[in-house]
Amino acid sequence: MANFVYIATSLDGHIATLDGGIEWLTEIPNPANSDYGFAEFMNSIDALVMGRKTYETVLTFDQWPYTKRVFVLSNTLKTVAPTLRDKAEIINGELKNILTTLHERGFKNLYIDGGKTIQGFLKENLIDELIVTKIPIILGDGIPLFQRQNNSIMFRHYSTTIYNDSLVKSHYKRA
Predict the structure, then answer these.
(1) Which of the listed residues 4, 21, 25, 94 has the most CB atoms within 10 Å of its CB?
(2) How many helices (DSSP H) and strands (DSSP E) are in the chain?
(3) Helix, strand, or coil (residue 164)
């Protein structure tokens, strides 16, 4: 059982612009049309746990990008979009209790996504692996991946892959 973060950041550590924009991610030249290892990663997980804002961003995509079950953390949403009822569901409560419930339902390896969701899992010391891809852009301001927290969490470098001579994907595991 493990909780994974798989995310891209700007060089200055932002995951989105202040208004939540992620257009800068799609502006990167990709001549080989690579998924940069995302499909392989998705094959290693059982489900996704994402925050409400991330869910709402994904709803703006041309199509739903996930084949794995998605659990949306929200205290305000009551249901998912009708077209997604067999693909996603709303969950809420304390993170440790949510994990216990998901594990009991057979979802062992979880992809944790969304800024506040990742920060909440880190605050509760519930992230096992971080896979962070640095995009060669400085946004100057935006939504940070990390924020102040009271506890230190030690990770060890596992691997680094460079794509298109510009994207740097580093994988870290809990020490």
Answers:
(1) 4
(2) 5, 10
(3) coil
